[in-house]
Design goal:
Layout lengths: L2 H7 L3 H4 L12 E5 L4 E3 L7 E7 L2 E6 L5 E7 L3 E3 L1 H5 L8 E4 L3 E7 H10 L1 H21 L2 H4 L2 H15 L5 E2 L4 H8 L3 H13 L4 E3 L2 E4 L1 H17 L2
Antiparallel strand pairs: 1-8, 2-7, 3-6, 3-8, 4-5, 4-7, 9-11, 10-11
Helix pairs in contact: 4-5, 7-9, 7-10
């Protein structure tokens, strides 16, 4: 695939490349990753910058004891390596894994650094995206310390269905994925699910969590009440 073909396929990309130095038209590469692929691993030497043009990915932190914690999920247009480069660090601080097939437009780290030094428009777009993710993280930080696991899991499930544009439905996540994405340990997660089932806030179908429309309404009411009680 050429850059011209990618720009035609992803019109939103054109705003980011509006003032791209002309010499970069010959110094890029495009790679498509299947779902479940590691784009880069934590602590790897970073020698490139990427623009995620298609597909969703997750940013995770891996620990020496084997535990994984999901920091965020991102959709296009997004970036690979921008935080490491802007922080002037040589190695990545996180692992990036694709959730769906992802198409990434790559430039060398040196070319990216030269580009943002010349193109304030592009630098502003990249910085705005970094600031947005930091804002989102800061806004929710601390919730795992002050809310019970029932609240955290229900909040995750309701938001999951909203992101999938569903008013009810199956949660297509394994227990391991729920643990990684909520930060609730597997043991606590299983107890929490049993408690929510007993309160008729969730159901299970063939081992998967399911919320009916009435359960979603009850879950939203539960979350609203808990939030007010915590003030």
């Amino acid at each position: 695939m050429t850059l011209e073909e990618l720009r035609a396929r992803v019109p939103e990309l054109n705003e980011y490349l509006k003032y791209m130095p002309s010499e970069l038209n010959d110094r890029y590469w495009i790679h498509t990753y299947p779902a479940g692929t590691i784009i880069h691993q934590k602590d790897e030497l970073l020698e490139y910058f990427g623009i995620v043009c298609e597909g969703s990915h997750r940013v995770i932190n891996e620990f020496e004891n084997g535990n994984i914690y999901m920091i965020e999920r991102n959709d296009p247009i997004d970036f690979v390596g921008e935080v490491t480069i802007l922080a002037e660090k040589p190695r990545t601080s996180v692992t990036i894994e694709t959730l769906t097939d992802c198409t990434v437009l790559y430039f060398s780290r040196k070319d990216f650094e030269n580009w943002i030094a010349k193109d304030i428009h592009f630098l502003r777009l990249v910085s705005r995206k970094v600031a947005y993710k930091l804002y989102r993280s800061s806004y929710n930080r601390g919730s795992k310390l002050f809310y019970p696991p029932q609240y955290l899991l229900l909040d995750y499930l309701v938001k999951y269905l909203a992101e999938e544009h569903q008013t009810s439905g199956m949660i297509a996540k394994t227990r391991q994925q729920l643990y990684e994405e909520t930060g609730i340990s597997v043991k606590t997660l299983n107890r929490t699910i049993q408690k929510l089932k007993a309160d008729d806030l969730v159901s299970t179908v063939k081992g998967k969590l399911f919320l009916s429309e009435s359960q979603v309404r009850s879950a939203r009411l539960y979350l609203k009440e808990k939030k007010h009680m915590s003030r």
